[in-house]
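Internal tracking record. Fields below are filled automatically when a chain is submitted to the structure queue. Please do not edit lines marked as system-generated. If the sequence contains nonstandard residues, flag them in the REMARKS field before resubmitting.
Queue: standard
Priority: normal
Entity type: single polypeptide chain
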Amino acid sequence: MTDKQEIFDRFIELVGKFGQIRSVQSVRESMALTMPFTIGGSIFLLIANVPISGYSEFMAGIFGAGWTDSLNAVASGTFGALALIIVVGITYNYVYIDGGDASIASMIALATFLILLPPEIVTESGESIGGVIPRNWIGSNSILTAILVSFFVSSICVYCRKKNWGIKLPDSVPMEVVRSFEAFTPCIICFTSAAIVYGICHHLFETSLPELFFTVIQSPLQGLSDTLIGGIIITALQSILFWAGIHGPNVVNGVVAPLVLANTWENQQLLEAGQQLMGNPAAHIFTMQLNEVFTKSGGCGFTMGFLIACYIAAKSEQMKTVSKIALVPGIFNINEPIIFGLPIVFNPYMIVPFILAPTFAMIITYLSIDLGFMPPFSGTQVPWTTPTIISGFLLNGWQGAIIQIINLIVATLVYLPFVKLYDKVLLEEEDAQKGLADE
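SYSTEM-GENERATED OUTPUT FOLLOWS
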């Protein structure tokens, strides 16, 4: 028992240290920063693709055949520019944590990233056009490149600041001018490095760094994350860590979020290319929506199932009180009152359903898409506080709502026996305390 406890404690310690790594923190916080852009873009996508039969024809009759063009342009400027947002966000967070000039570092990173992009685009007719920024490579296809560029530029900026490398000016010079000259050294290092990498990729491999990374690394990783086994591991690991007192989604998303976000946007690109997602082998199943919406009703661990089970079976004052307090936040997918109030953290009675409920929800949702009951998710996203069933309908019409209802029923059945067991323990403790009070 001691050996198992030591192994467990060591595991938790290592995971905690991993979550505190500056680069992991920067990725995690930068993924959160993409939310206003993805949610904002999703609002326009949702308006263009309301899952109601006849809606599109009705709107076209009022505004004309091209009524979705301006709405899709917003999506392209948000989802389609995720790599630019990420390269700026990660660099800013990384350098800001270190106390450096985060604004200038972010601009250096952006310029370095643009240097590495493909020099031209190829039209459908085969014509090559240079002197433009290729939109296909500033979005999800270049997320990995954006992350690595951010790490490199951030490290250079931090190192130069600590080594005091830079052109020094008298104190009488305005601060804006001083900042510009201090940034000169990291600029030269980063731009020179980017030029060398660009030359190697262009002349030796006849490609660009984003294209090379996408082919060799990002695409296989996306494929791995898009499998049923990959989905089970991702979902279960989030719950295991959260049960152990570590914010599992934050830790796991530091690694997984760029991949599932890329899956989401590639599905949207298929739609914009005139393809259907239903039955399309090129469409991804495990996306941001599946991970964040369909496996986390009530919050991580699918704790809405726990709340329903409590209202069915709970008799102890502690469980009834906690479930009542947690109901309203839980409807909006906030489950800290349960996680820390019951608690679920380090509660041996709750670890099994806390892992199984979201895992079953992931499997059900994955199979419902894989078997053709509902299409894979497009680029449309909803705020994470959107209540269950409503969020399912907004994302995938009545099929999405039905799957969320099924997931709720299954999660409730999973939690029910464990709630009864733990409730019995709590009831015995309360009765014992009453007996002592009466004495």
